[in-house]
Specification:
This protein is mainly alpha-helical. 68% of the residues lie in helices and 6% in strands.
Length: 174
């Protein structure tokens, strides 16, 4: 087989795999939306047993669709599991983004991220070097729920308060 032919086949296989991934990932928000709608409707009707039945049916339907996509695109079960795991991660990020800020700060994801930033910054304020009453401050809120480490910095309570009062850190002259 020529290199060109082999390259074309690899490109085609990659494209088919990409389409399969996209098909499975696109199911996530649709399914989440259906579950929310079912819960709302059944809450209005006051029928929690009906909610569980509908969610069971939707779960079964989702598994059937995953199997159909797996067979159609010739994916292994491990590849499907990896895609579904990515889909779940995306759904969790969406949940985190939609949480009120104070609730977000209580999540395990924020607590883990907070500890990582404190450790990175040597458990010291990055302005005055204090080790007391530390906060992890968002430099940028646009990626709340999936922050980059560079979006965050460690500030002591005093420096954090100065920042929020002035919308910037100001140098206090003695």
């Amino acid at each position: 087989m020529s290199d060109t032919k082999q390259s074309e086949e690899i490109t085609q296989a990659v494209e088919i795999h990409r389409e399969a991934v996209e098909a499975i990932v696109n199911l996530g928000p649709i399914i989440a939306n259906h579950i929310q709608t079912i819960r709302k409707c059944d809450r209005i009707r006051g029928d929690p047993e009906n909610t569980n039945y509908h969610i069971y049916q939707l779960t079964h339907w989702t598994e059937s669709i995953h199997e159909l996509i797996r067979e159609s695109y010739q994916l292994t079960e491990i590849q499907v599991q990896e895609i579904v795991a990515r889909e779940a991660k995306i759904e969790r990020i969406i949940e985190l983004v939609e949480l009120p800020y104070k609730e977000y700060l209580l999540t395990p994801e924020w607590q883990e991220r907070r500890q990582r930033i404190l450790k990175r910054d040597g458990f010291r304020c990055q302005v005055c070097n204090s080790p007391e009453r530390l906060n992890v401050h968002h430099r940028d809120y646009t990626r709340r729920g999936y922050e980059n480490d560079t979006d965050l910095t460690t500030l002591c309570q005093g420096c954090h308060q100065v920042f929020h009062e002035n919308s910037r850190l100001v140098r206090v002259e003695a």
